[in-house]
Amino acid sequence: MSYYKINNLEQYFKHYNKSIREPRKFWGKIAEENFVWYQGWDKVLDFDMGEAQVKWFTDAKVNIVKNCIDRHLAKRGDKTAIIFEPNNPEEAAQHISYNDLYDRVSKMANVLREQGIKKGDRVCIYLPMIPELAVSVLACARIGAIHSVVFAGFSASAVASRIIDCECKMVITSDGAFRGNKSIDLKGIIDEALEKCPSVTKVLVAKRTNTAVNMKEGRDQWLQPLVDAAVPNCVAEIMDAEDPLFILYTSGSTGKPKGMLHTTAGYMVQTAYSFKNIFNYEENDIFWCTADIGWITGHSYILYGPLLNGATTVIFEGIPSYPDFGRFWEVIDKHKVTQFYTAPTAIRSLAKENDEWVDKYDLSTLKVIGSVGEPINEEAWHWYNDHVGKKKCPVVDTWWQTETGSIMISPIPFVTPTKPTYATLPLPGIQPVLMDEKRNEIEGNQVVGSLCIKFPWPSMARTIWGDHERYKETYFSAFPGKYFTGDGALRDEVGYYRITGRVDDVVIVSGHNLGTAPIEDAINEHPAVAESAIVGFPHDIKGNALYGFIILKETGEYRDRDNLTREINEHISSHIGPIAKLDKIQFVSGLPKTRSGKIMRRILRKIAEGDFSNFGDTTTLLNPEIVDEIKSNRV
Ligand code: PRX
């Protein structure tokens, strides 16, 4: 019996129980039967959760790109690997076969080598959703360079801090990006970022918008002529199972972004396995995940998961509202998409438009529809199920994180009965637990607690780049011996999980994971600001939005509050990116603080939500009178 595919609920429980009893045997068999290795492993797993040390498939040798492309060529060379759907629907879509992808990735990999990039070097990729993005990622992985994709919506200083943190040698970018009816000057953003990044000696520039850009002599080169001159064969680097594959930055509740480091073999095994099962993937399916490759969802379920299975994956450059609110549905109809994977925020924003936008397209090819990134509310779940899935496609509400690398808790379509707003059951091999405040594991069902994972899984991040202590502290110290997710969850009467949201200072805005501390740091740099506190509050479309409580310096210089509000948001935009802008700003004369000087965010959160009942114990506050002032001036 193969463990790779789960066909019914009985098999799920069988596999699940087996995976808990004998995790090494379980993952070992999946790894052995479904991938090509240069050399097998000594041990399937070696770990010490206390030290946050985890190794999967020790000493095995493998190249993930050989598994994504080369091994499919004999059987699927002419099959479409990537469908590229441009921002502008009038521009023709591209169908890139596995043979074409092999050539393009090999050439690009040779370009990287010629430019001096070697195994272990870090390459920052700052590109729009165009084929060059996929090709660059895979080219890095082919030669063992560590890719660090930075979402092309981040500002110059956000890119710079990510480049500096992992000392990238090279940046791959484009002249510009199309986004709806706008075009964005990506090269200009990179030029500004690189003023602060001495480690970068080479910049390769893809042409997309054909806009004029500055090319810095000796540093910048157009990508295409280099690719044209390269040969289409490139010997793949032999990678150790635990060699780094990529770094992907995610916001932390404090301090600078965390460069989550993922390694090769475990990531490969679990992304492939989860893709196959959670999307019920079959050979001729057309899979579309609408995320950006700049996020983990794009890494695992636009690129690696689908390609490891020899699938056809759609890369969409545009946005759901351009040229109109029917774009997603038009693309599904046009390319006969069979699995569609998107975020609740997109679902909510489209659900508020006229249903005709979706109802007029033929979505009959769809088999499975998925959701990721934040809790999906009941109304959005039903709209998605009724109008997109037409009540015949299971909705897979998939819970996971940048840190987990792959989907962890999710229904398996046609296997697990779905339940609106529930991510339902863990994948085989995944051992979630709920913990109480006293750090005890909560047994039984119909319980609520902090969500932890108590046993390693193959695609977990191995460390934070350059800061293992922070990795240990952030994820393995709150509940010793366990990985703490930062999320709260409940387990219902049948053992289904429902994720209730973050229990730390991270707010998920439109599916983007934002730490409040870095935003506060950015605001506090504004010359008028003395101190600030940011909290999330519920928002109909975005899930959560940000509310800022700001204390101004007493100079009185900044009297025009509207101007100041605008300036603060511009400041956030340029320091972090437009996604971190505040929806509401309230100027306050003080913030509720404990005697030790800690801001009581719990109170601010309640005020931002407009819930003035039961503030809990405020007796420990240094300045309880401030609460009434803040309440009465709420915006
Ligand atoms: O709070 C959870 C929420 O998104 C967080 C992870 O964010 P990020 O690392 O950016 O990865 C997003 C894409 C995997 C989680 O800690 N989250 C993710 N999926 C769900 C979710 N919350 C509820 N339900 C989900 N399905």
UniProtKB/TrEMBL annotation:
<dbReference type="InterPro" id="IPR045851">
    <property type="entry name" value="AMP-bd_C_sf"/>
</dbReference>
<keyword id="KW-0547">Nucleotide-binding</keyword>
<feature type="domain" description="Acetyl-coenzyme A synthetase N-terminal">
    <location>
        <begin position="12"/>
        <end position="68"/>
    </location>
</feature>
<dbReference type="Pfam" id="PF16177">
    <property type="entry name" value="ACAS_N"/>
</dbReference>
<dbReference type="Pfam" id="PF13193">
    <property type="entry name" value="AMP-binding_C"/>
</dbReference>
<dbReference type="InterPro" id="IPR020845">
    <property type="entry name" value="AMP-binding_CS"/>
</dbReference>
<dbReference type="GO" id="GO:0003987">
    <property type="term" value="F:acetate-CoA ligase activity"/>
</dbReference>
<keyword id="KW-0067">ATP-binding</keyword>
<feature type="domain" description="AMP-binding enzyme C-terminal">
    <location>
        <begin position="519"/>
        <end position="598"/>
    </location>
</feature>
<keyword id="KW-0436">Ligase</keyword>
<dbReference type="InterPro" id="IPR042099">
    <property type="entry name" value="ANL_N_sf"/>
</dbReference>
<dbReference type="InterPro" id="IPR011904">
    <property type="entry name" value="Ac_CoA_lig"/>
</dbReference>
<dbReference type="GO" id="GO:0016208">
    <property type="term" value="F:AMP binding"/>
</dbReference>
<dbReference type="Pfam" id="PF00501">
    <property type="entry name" value="AMP-binding"/>
</dbReference>
<dbReference type="GO" id="GO:0005524">
    <property type="term" value="F:ATP binding"/>
</dbReference>
<dbReference type="InterPro" id="IPR000873">
    <property type="entry name" value="AMP-dep_synth/lig_dom"/>
</dbReference>
<comment type="similarity">
    <text>Belongs to the ATP-dependent AMP-binding enzyme family.</text>
</comment>
<keyword id="KW-0007">Acetylation</keyword>
<dbReference type="InterPro" id="IPR025110">
    <property type="entry name" value="AMP-bd_C"/>
</dbReference>
<feature type="domain" description="AMP-dependent synthetase/ligase">
    <location>
        <begin position="70"/>
        <end position="462"/>
    </location>
</feature>
<dbReference type="GO" id="GO:0019427">
    <property type="term" value="P:acetyl-CoA biosynthetic process from acetate"/>
</dbReference>
<protein>
    <recommendedName>
        <fullName>Acetate--CoA ligase</fullName>
        <ecNumber>6.2.1.1</ecNumber>
    </recommendedName>
</protein>
<dbReference type="InterPro" id="IPR032387">
    <property type="entry name" value="ACAS_N"/>
</dbReference>
